[in-house]
Design a protein that fits this description.
heterodimer, A: mainly alpha, about 75% helix, globular, B: alpha/beta, Rossmann fold, Alpha-Beta Plaits, 2 domains, 6-stranded mixed beta sheet, 4-stranded antiparallel beta sheet, about 35% helix, about 30% strand
């Protein structure tokens, strides 16, 4: 542990811009939602009405979790239900960046040769990240108190965010030990956050109709913290459970660290073939080797998502036939409309996720360039266009595979459980997201061609689309703001009608972006 | 004799920094050409321009009779390149990388590849992330050397190799040289390597070629070191023009002398009577250091 303090200072120095940003933005979000909710409804009656609908709207429950009360405070905290997910990703990336990524780059070796304990780098990363979560919780509490909400509830709200961050910090400590590569560790840690979210989502949707899968929420840290209900029950034990999990995960990470060598993972590397397979002779074949693990992982995740979404669709159908809620649902259009709107909002979310894959696959090209791999391929008589095409093949067709898998699995799962055949509709809802996904892939490709140093901005484009999806309608943003996201333009099947115009238009935009990207890539220096 | 590389006044800027500042480089077909300069002198940038990876801001270059930027792909089939900092795909084995790069260039000589693997003592089954720096370098070397190409462009190819492997590398390059039809551009800052292998040398500094020619030609322009034991104290040696760094210790003298003044200096020694004499031509190190001292004054 010697040297931990100095390493903490190093982390603070390296993260002096990025860490304050995520701590502050995520911390202030709950307070921002208070303003939103207050501004949205002119009378209490309107708000109560909205609360009732929100509580029974499967799409909302899927996105944010269960709403138990109807006060402004409770609704604001419920609306901030996505913050633990974003926080989970932020802390996971922070921990990996200062542990496995440093180790892979050889920086840990450099530091390890100095007067620094073997556990110091991990300890420093964990202490700093957990402290950041604490600060974030304090910001959230102060923000909510500043909005005039009760102090006790605001304190619990801060606790909710802080402990959820700790849980994923602890898990990231494990992930950092498992594989030799930072990329692998990042995938494991972020996948765990996604899994926790999907489990929470499945459990909550099932709980809406007292379904048999409601226990799923209780195997997820996100499910735990959302059961604190700061301004309602203010249960302390889900928070305690989360802290115990965080402590156990952290301890497991430290123990695993003691059982491996510097640079090694727990999953040992195996030797490969001495000669290349006959087929490994083109840039596309190489791209397949580089992308296949990522694509298979994502496809498996999308199949799992489809299974959960399809299975909990039954709860939505049950809800529609619930007589006690009769008049509300009659107003909303009855059971069938509810199921359709549920699948439409799922399709929107799945579309954004597919865009995450598309951007990741496209930016792989830039990674190949900065790592020096592109140079090796391009000087071995591959054309730049052929090299780029190999990667773009995956960023364009990969999402198609993912959306097909999700649509098929969720439609089939729903059909198998309820006996209703909605496969075609659900599949159409998922696949029509594709032109919007391609547009984001096109943005990532163009950035890679035109502004390579800024290519990571493509993630900003995805974040904007996610924000539009999450808060766009609540904040009643102007239409032109909503229109920034290509996902606003796709028909929201199976609710609306299939209109081809936006699909064709988005495809043309995506094609133009990709074509421009190829031209700019041909004209610039590599590496740039 | 035709020229394999003909670069004329290359200029390349990165923002405010100027990497190449009017660089000239001429490499004749069939020769091993040393490309010398310290880190940051512009060696890698020059190579990247010659490979069509970067477009120069000024000047022109011809490579194997073609335009490196416009004809990049066609030219790359005729050459093989070993980058200075070899990074391999972490999930591909060394053997896979060697075969892939060879096939992209249009074919690989399997026998030659296997022979090279053996000589470099390289295990091709390891995954990219498991190789040490030296072994990554070997993967790129084997890939480049087992393709049947007209030109090899090697950017500091022996960095990370141990002395035994450096010797293997030299043997292989000497064999290439004996074939007579392969041109090699060898960028390096290891002078003994260049001295052992190269026919001609270009020394660059701050993006400009400061000296180019055969080692003999370059030596002609510089000084020979002489250490002698004389019959008596030296006479008037210090007043000769072209004699430098003279130090006298009783009967023993050491000094450096410019090529033009060599004759005069030897006469002066013979007049006193010579018991023992060691004359040493300047090493490349000395050429190099002189080149840089001259510039920094």
């Amino acid at each position: 542990m010697t040297g931990t303090a100095r390493l903490i200072r190093l982390i603070l120095r390296r993260d002096r811009f990025i860490m304050p940003i995520w701590v502050f933005v995520l911390g202030i979000l709950p307070a921002a939602y208070v303003t939103t909710i207050e501004g949205l409804f002119s009378t209490d009656a309107e708000r109560l009405d909205y609360a009732l609908i929100s509580r029974t709207n499967a799409g909302f429950v899927a996105l944010y979790g269960q709403l138990r009360g109807d006060s402004v405070a409770e609704m604001a905290i419920w609306r901030a239900g996505f913050v633990p997910v974003m926080l989970g990703v932020a802390v996971a990336l922070t921990v990996i960046r200062h542990t496995r990524a440093d180790e892979e780059a050889g920086r840990t070796e450099l530091i390890g040769a100095g007067v620094v304990g073997r556990r110091a780098p991990l300890a420093a990363a964990l202490i700093t990240t957990m402290a950041a979560c604490l600060v974030l919780g304090v910001i959230a509490t102060l923000g909510l108190v500043g909005q005039g909400l009760p102090v006790a509830g605001s304190l619990w709200s801060g606790v909710e965010l802080t402990v959820s961050g700790w849980a994923f910090t602890g898990f990231a400590a494990i992930a950092a030990q498992l594989t030799g590569s930072a990329r692998g560790a990042r995938s494991i840690a972020v996948l765990a956050v996604g899994l926790a979210y999907v489990l929470r989502l499945g459990g909550d949707l099932s709980a809406m109709s007292d379904g048999p899968l409601s226990w799923l929420s209780w195997v997820s840290p996100i499910g735990w913290v959302q059961h604190i209900y700061p301004y309602g029950a203010a249960d302390w034990w889900p928070a305690e459970l989360t802290v115990v999990f965080a402590a156990a995960a952290t301890a497991a990470g430290v123990v695993l660290l003691g059982h491996r060598d510097l640079g090694a993972g727990l999953f040992p590397g195996r030797p490969g073939p001495a000669t290349a397979a006959r087929s490994l002779r083109t840039p596309l074949a190489l791209a397949w080797r580089l992308h296949r693990g990522l694509l298979i992982g994502w496809a498996a995740a999308f199949a799992a998502l489809g299974l959960v979404f399809g299975a909990v669709g039954q709860s939505v159908a049950d809800l529609g036939s619930d007589t006690a809620m009769g008049d509300i649902f009659a107003r909303m259009g009855g059971s069938e409309v509810m199921v359709n709107s549920y699948f439409a909002s799922i399709a929107g979310m799945v579309g954004i996720l597919a865009a995450c894959y598309a951007v990741q696959a496209t930016l792989r090209m830039r990674d190949e360039e900065t790592a020096g791999h592109a140079e090796m391929i391009l000087t071995a008589a591959a054309t730049r266009r052929g090299w780029a095409a190999g990667h773009l093949f995956f960023s364009l067709l990969g999402p198609a595979v993912l959306l097909l898998v999700e649509g098929l699995v969720s439609g089939a799962a729903y059909g198998a459980i309820t006996g209703d055949n909605v496969l075609g509709d659900v599949l159409a809802g998922a696949v029509t997201q594709l032109p919007a996904v391609w547009t984001l892939a096109g943005v990532a490709a163009l950035l890679t061609g035109l502004l390579p140093r800024w290519s990571a901005l493509a993630w900003g484009a995805v974040s904007i689309c996610l924000l539009v999806l999450l808060v766009g309608t609540t904040l009643q943003l102007d239409q032109w703001l909503l229109d920034i996201s290509p996902f606003t333009h796709v028909p929201h099947l199976p609710v609306g009608d299939l209109s081809w115009t936006p699909l064709v238009a988005l495809t043309v935009v995506a094609a133009a972006l990709v074509a421009t990207a190829l031209v700019t890539l041909r004209r610039r220096d590599i590496p740039a | 004799m035709t020229e394999a590389i003909d670069a004329d006044g290359l200029i390349k800027r990165f923002g405010r920094a100027t990497a190449l500042n009017g660089l000239d480089l001429r490499v004749r077909t069939g020769e091993v050409h040393g490309f010398l300069g310290p880190n940051g002198a512009g060696k890698t940038t020059t190579i990247r321009v010659l490979l069509g990876l970067m477009r120069p801001d000024g000047g022109a270059a011809t490579l194997l009779g073609g335009d490196p930027w416009r004809d990049a792909t066609a030219l790359h089939r005729r050459l093989a390149y070993v980058p200075g900092d070899v990074t391999l795909w972490p999930t591909l084995s060394g053997g896979e990388v060697i075969d892939l790069l060879g096939r992209l260039r249009g074919g690989i000589d399997v026998k030659r590849r296997d022979a090279l693997l053996e000589r470099f003592e390289l295990d091709p089954r390891k995954k990219g992330r498991a190789y040490s720096k030296g072994n990554r370098q070997k993967v790129a070397l084997v890939a480049a050397l087992s393709s049947d190409v007209e030109m090899l462009i090697l950017d500091e190819p022996t960095s990370g190799l141990d002395p035994l492997m450096e010797e293997v590398f030299r043997e292989v390059i000497r064999e290439e040289k004996q074939r007579g039809d392969r041109t090699v551009l060898l960028s390096s800052h290891i002078l003994s390597e260049v001295e052992a292998l190269c026919d001609r040398v270009t020394i660059i500094r701050e993006g400009r070629a400061v000296e180019t020619g055969t080692l003999d030609e370059m030596r002609h322009l510089t000084r020979t070191s002489i250490r002698a034991e004389l019959a008596g104290p030296p006479n008037g040696l210090g007043s000769l023009t072209g004699v430098h760094n003279l130090s006298v210790d009783g009967d023993r003298v050491t000094f450096e002398v410019e090529t033009d003044a060599l004759d005069q200096a030897l006469r002066a020694l013979v007049q006193v009577g010579v018991r023992n004499l060691v004359s040493r031509p300047p090493t490349l190190e000395e050429l190099f250091l002189r080149q840089y001292q001259k510039a920094s004054v």
